[in-house]
Amino acid sequence: MTISIWRYSHLTLAISSSIFILLAALTGIVLAFEPISNQLKPYAVKHADALSLSKTVENLQAEYDEVIHVEKDKNNFVIASVITKDGKNETFYINPFTAKKIGDIIEKAPFFKFVTNLHRSLFLKSTGRVLVGFISFLLFLMAVTGVFLIIKRQGGVKRFFSKMIKENFNQYYHIIIGRYVLIPIVIVTLSGVYLSLEKFSLLPSEKKPHDINEELLVGTPKIKVQDFSLFKTLTLNDIQRVEFPFSDAIEDYFVLKLNDKEWLVNQYNGAIISEKKQNLVALVSSWSMLLHTGQGSIMWSVILLLTCIAILFFMFSGFAMTLNRRKNSIKIKNKFSKDAAEYIILVGSETGSTYGFAKALYKALIAEGKSVFVSELNAYSSYKKAEHLVVFTSTYGDGEPPTNAKNFEKLVGHVYQNKILKYSVVGFGSLAYKGFCKYAIVVDSLLQLHQKFIPNLSLHKINNQSFDAFKDWASSWSKNKGLNLKIEKPVNTPQPKNSKLFKVVSRSMVNSDNSFLLELELAQKLKFNSGDLFKVYPKNEQRERLYSIGKINENIVLSIKKHEFGVCSGYFSKLKKNDMVLADIKQNKDFNFPVNVKEVVMISNGTGIAPFLGMINNQDSNSVKSHLFWGGRTKDSYQIYSELIDKAFYSKKLSGLYISFSKEESQKRYVQNSIVEKSDLISRVLKSDGVIMICGSIAMQNDVLETLESISESKLNRPLNLNQIKTDCY
Ligand SMILES: Cc1cc2nc3c(=O)[nH]c(=O)nc-3n(C[C@H](O)[C@H](O)[C@H](O)COP(=O)(O)O)c2cc1C
């Protein structure tokens, strides 16, 4: 069964019951405070549960003229109904050790009465109760469908609680919190349904009368009540309520309500004259009441309170995810039919973001006067005039297709194409998953085997919807087609609200690689770490530029490559000492220096070294062993970094430095060549739960990951554990 069936059921249930669930959760939050505030009242007497019934009765009989009943309320406070020495009939809380009154019975506050009515029946009496019971059941079904969604998403029951990858705040916490409040939600909903069914007498009731053993209704031997052996063995913990006999007649007896049964007890000798076990329905209903309301337990009331708050969060995050998905997946209105278009773009997308990229390509091609048709992979068909096919697809699970692509494999084998098409496949995925872009690899190989398709470009993989990586592909693809496409970023990024001023401390010369170092000072106090991102909005542009930060002596160090037409890099390359820059810092916790590890390997090429320049100069030299791999073009490329690296090396903050030059006559090697040479070091770090950080170009990242994978396979006999890899590549 696909993930979307569970998602649609989950969503349909949520939409159909949202208003009622909102009301139930809000009123539930208020009602959770009632048992909490009751429990905090000073009527609980320490160790009262351990007091014997005989002692309690003795104390009561000494204090009052007559005792009518004693009981424990839902908060476990002891209540006595008595005739006092001055002849008044009163009911109040007592201290069972002295039998003295300690307070008046708590009356339900009118506000709580109002909210309880709203929660139970929405002021609609019986109709409302049926409705609330039904909604409770829907919420239970939502919890069940949610469980299946998590299982599907996590890739199996066994991985239900395993670590999740944080791709999006709402999605991440919807699942994380969902896993924790699942059990309370199931309890609250099922108990709610049960209480509703009970109210409508829909449950079997078994009201059996007592079967009194007449032979035991005798007045001898006459024993004092406090000496009844039964009363001596029972404590207040065992008792819910004791009704005292009305008169001295032998037919009047004590009625003892225990937690699971009721006893009638001879008032003269303490013999049990009848026993009635509590039936299952009554037992379940008393538990349902306790579990649904939280009465008697502050801890459970707090859990119920948190559960109601979590339900509100689920509503918010669930709808936010749905809106986002819908926004992303707004289908493209094709100007051309499938048989009239020269370019066909087929999309495989689960949550819609890949459509954004398809739209960008569609718009750029239309602007160039091309005929284009966009559709989903499931709608693969024959295309009369098509010359070019582009497939954009995401991956889910272990190489599984997104929902709208699951029929493609079958269709591609059956549908006849009358012309040969040149194709290119772009995979959208995340390096955080084991099978990076695995479904795109499947599609690419299906097309390779097909007689009617010839490849244009090799498969291109894009991590975390990187627009820059997409632009790289689009530029190679359009060059290949002889086009000059202007690709716009799918979603506009808003202008920054919280821009801050940064002062230029120094800027290095631009080296032969067109790279330079920029050091900035903060004009105001701001907490940040190496690996966080420096966020700049170039003038007249909506799209932000992000640079990885190195933090050295509280200053920001950026390593920037000047591009020929780069607005931002051009601006930075002209900055002088004391110039001011307007920008912001974006936290990037996933790429901060790891804590609680013994060894860290940092791998970078080109300007990707910036965060590592900060990390090697900041971290405590004794606690973590750091090794730096860096790849550049020539020796000259290295000069701008050498001072900061030497400083770290000589102060023993850096344990190993491995540099490779790809364009130097004496050694033409890439960073991955040095990694292979140091495979013992890499395998040791992997084995000892160390962390490998990668920063630089996507191409370098892909090659490095392949190298690390083969080291892990050959030296440790296991696949590379991606939880040990942190990346920040562009
Ligand atoms: C539950 C889940 C599973 C994923 N599994 C993979 C995977 O196995 N391999 C991969 O490369 N990406 C995986 N991804 C990442 C998505 O493919 C990636 O975020 C993609 O850009 C989403 O595109 P879409 O919004 O068009 O579906 C997964 C994402 C999620 C939420």
Automatic annotation (TrEMBL):
<dbReference type="InterPro" id="IPR008254">
    <property type="entry name" value="Flavodoxin/NO_synth"/>
</dbReference>
<feature type="domain" description="Flavodoxin-like">
    <location>
        <begin position="343"/>
        <end position="478"/>
    </location>
</feature>
<keyword id="KW-1133">Transmembrane helix</keyword>
<dbReference type="InterPro" id="IPR001433">
    <property type="entry name" value="OxRdtase_FAD/NAD-bd"/>
</dbReference>
<dbReference type="InterPro" id="IPR029039">
    <property type="entry name" value="Flavoprotein-like_sf"/>
</dbReference>
<feature type="transmembrane region" description="Helical">
    <location>
        <begin position="12"/>
        <end position="33"/>
    </location>
</feature>
<dbReference type="InterPro" id="IPR001094">
    <property type="entry name" value="Flavdoxin-like"/>
</dbReference>
<keyword id="KW-0472">Membrane</keyword>
<feature type="domain" description="FAD-binding FR-type">
    <location>
        <begin position="497"/>
        <end position="594"/>
    </location>
</feature>
<dbReference type="Pfam" id="PF03929">
    <property type="entry name" value="PepSY_TM"/>
</dbReference>
<feature type="transmembrane region" description="Helical">
    <location>
        <begin position="298"/>
        <end position="323"/>
    </location>
</feature>
<dbReference type="InterPro" id="IPR017927">
    <property type="entry name" value="FAD-bd_FR_type"/>
</dbReference>
<protein>
    <recommendedName>
        <fullName>NADPH--hemoprotein reductase</fullName>
        <ecNumber>1.6.2.4</ecNumber>
    </recommendedName>
</protein>
<dbReference type="InterPro" id="IPR001709">
    <property type="entry name" value="Flavoprot_Pyr_Nucl_cyt_Rdtase"/>
</dbReference>
<feature type="transmembrane region" description="Helical">
    <location>
        <begin position="172"/>
        <end position="197"/>
    </location>
</feature>
<keyword id="KW-0812">Transmembrane</keyword>
<dbReference type="InterPro" id="IPR017938">
    <property type="entry name" value="Riboflavin_synthase-like_b-brl"/>
</dbReference>
<dbReference type="Pfam" id="PF00258">
    <property type="entry name" value="Flavodoxin_1"/>
</dbReference>
<dbReference type="InterPro" id="IPR039261">
    <property type="entry name" value="FNR_nucleotide-bd"/>
</dbReference>
<dbReference type="InterPro" id="IPR005625">
    <property type="entry name" value="PepSY-ass_TM"/>
</dbReference>
<dbReference type="Pfam" id="PF00175">
    <property type="entry name" value="NAD_binding_1"/>
</dbReference>
<feature type="transmembrane region" description="Helical">
    <location>
        <begin position="130"/>
        <end position="151"/>
    </location>
</feature>
<keyword id="KW-0285">Flavoprotein</keyword>
